[in-house]
Structure prediction request, 304 residues.
Amino acid sequence: MDLRQLGALVAVADHRSFSAAARALHTVQSNISTHVARLERELGVTLVDRATGKLTPEGEIVVSRARRIETELEALVSDVAAVHSEVEGVARIGVIGTTARWLVPPLLEAMADEYPRVRVVVVDATTTSLLPQLHTGQLDLAVLALPIRDPDVDAEALFDEELIVIAPSDHPLAAQDRVTLDQLAQHQLLLEPPGTAFRDDLDAQAKEAGVTLSTKAEVDGMRLVASLAFEGYGAAVLPASAAPRIPMDERRWKMVRVDGLTRRSVGLVRRRRGLPSAPARALTEVLKRTVEAEADRQEGIHRS
Prediction:
């Protein structure tokens, strides 16, 4: 088993065929086929279904481990370079969309100033889609909604944010500065669908208060829910970080506080096993300082 064999299998997984994997690795298809076949013989299993080009269950396991190996090798090179010169290499971070809106711009600016030789890769997605990428090593760290009940990761709270209503200016809720859950239940709302962490938590809090929230539309994607509210389609329940920081007189919507809703916690999540690379450690350090500097400037957000 060698790195070329593992790299060939990962390329097949990423590009979904032997020919596409060969193009991505700038080689010929026969080399990819040979590497994968040798790996299969050594492990005694079939890793790729030749009829479909898809990984077998055994192939999925091997690729998951191979990605971690590639990440560790990349970290090794970066760590050695950091001993003799400034930190350089790649650091990959996942950030949930509403937080990315205000956190990523100052974070990238600070990294460029302090660690110009570190290339930062940002993945904007939901908590449920970012967590698996953290496990496989595709991400070094992630900023996710808490709690994370996973024994393979460590989580550190960064800030809490209020759950608020974004109501278009002509919506009845916009006439209020604060509302109760009872008042909220009297209106149809833009919400994420059941099964998403945010919606399930919101429904649980409403149930505890003895009310049921009704929907005007269910939209899978927090940023799209927010965009629809900003454009006047309806009122939406969102985390405070979904609201952009713009002057009041330029808004066509209003932020309304909701009494009785607990805050959402957002934190930094990292793999429990393995040593973070020098670029990942640098990004972690700058991220924490950026949150300290920026969180208090965001309406409805409170540092942990």
User: Anything to note?
Assistant: The chain has ten helices and twelve strands. The longest helix spans residues 57-84.
